[in-house]
Amino acid sequence: MASLTRPEHPTARSLWARTRLSECFEPGYGTALSTPILETDSRSEISIGRRPASRPAALLVMLATVASSEAAFAQISNVQPLLAKEAEPGLSSALEGSLDWRTGNLSLLIFSGNVITRYRHGRHLVFFLARGDETLNAGDRILFKHLEHLRYRLDIVGPLQVETFGQVEQDQARRVWPRALVGGGPRLSLIGSDNLDLAIAAAYMFEYQHVRATGELDDGQVELAHRLSTYVVLIIHANSILKFGETFYVQPRFDDASDLRLLSETEMLVTVTDHVAFKSGLVVAYDSSPPLGIRNLDTGLKTTLQISF
Questions:
Q1: How far apart are alpha carbons 215 and 3 in whole angstroms?
Q2: For residues 75 and 13, which has the higher predicted lDDT (pLDDT)?
Q3: What DSSP designation does 291 have?
Q4: What integer pLDDT is reported at residue 171 of this predicted model?
């Protein structure tokens, strides 16, 4: 289908989304994955190692989304998670993974995994993050998402740093297939003490996004956007065991400030040993202009056992 411009007015987009949702429960409706994602999700996660569809299918996809180990966040991800260990000289990494196996009325197998690797040498820091989630029903994939992010940071003088980054992702539930971005800009480390870390950053970001075909009017639409990507990171070291973190992103388009993406991630980390920590986090994400059939707001609550070295 040829690319079409989505309705610009929020009310028009909302009415369209509700219409598509109601159609999911009508006989003969054939695209389960255009069902809007439910807003709230909760999970428990254990880290391991080194650091066309019919009405029943539409119901199954909605239930699988609720059962999924991670909410389908609104096309912006926190790529600076709170870790038990700071980036010391040399190589450090962590591997987080979870498995959810359900039988009975629902036969689901849900995989989720994160790989976090950092390398610091003098003034240079390289950071790599990879995330993946897959949901299977009787061996058939019904939901899939992945994200890879690479970031380089250079200390210039005093609190001034510069960053460059690149990212690619695919998210079947949010109709992002694929999204890629590159960018860079300055970062200021305002406070760096034993009890408190505070940093702010602003970067130019170029974004490419292809909308996955699911029977909507915007199927196959390609969007190219120039965005300002800003964030603030606050980490409070309450003591040697307890740590709190807040990361807040704002990403408006340069040519249309109403096209805005926001992300807030609040985390609490409890260190158990030198290599094991327990982490809980609350994520709230907002996209003012998502693909058709996708809601603007997502929230997620997650609990993680983190193993790193």
A1: 12
A2: 75
A3: P
A4: 82
Question: Residues of the chain with pLDDT > 90: what percent?
Answer: 37
What is the spatial distance between Cα 87 and Cα 197, in angstroms, rounded to a whole number?
A: 13
Q: For the chain, what is the domain count?
A: 1
Round to the nearest angstrom and report the end-to-end CA distance of the chain: 49
Integer Cα distance of 163 and 189 in angstroms:
12
CATH of the domain at 35: 2.40.160.40
State the Cα–Cα distance between residues 265 and 255, nearest whole angstrom: 27
pTM of the model: 0.70
More confident residue, 44 or 127: 127
Q: Is residue 210, in this structure, part of any structural domain at all?
A: yes
Q: How many residues comprise the chain? A: 309
Q: What CA–CA distance (Å, rounded) separates 13 from 218?
A: 12
**Alpha helices in the chain, H assignment, sequence order:** 10-23, 55-67
Tokens of 122: 């003098």
In this structure, is residue 300 part of a structural domain?
yes
DSSP3 helix / strand / coil % (the chain, rounded to 5): 10, 55, 35
Count CB neighbours of 88 within 10 A: 9
Task: Please give the DSSP secondary-structure letter assigned to residue 308.
Answer: B
Range of the domain at 77: 10-307
Among 200, 281, 271, which residue's Cα sits nearest to residue 245? Answer: 281
**Whether the predicted pLDDT of 242 surpasses 50:** yes
C-beta of residue 17 within 8 angstroms of C-beta of residue 292: yes
SS (H, E, C) 193-223: CCCEEEEEEEEEEEEEEEECCCCCCCCCCEE
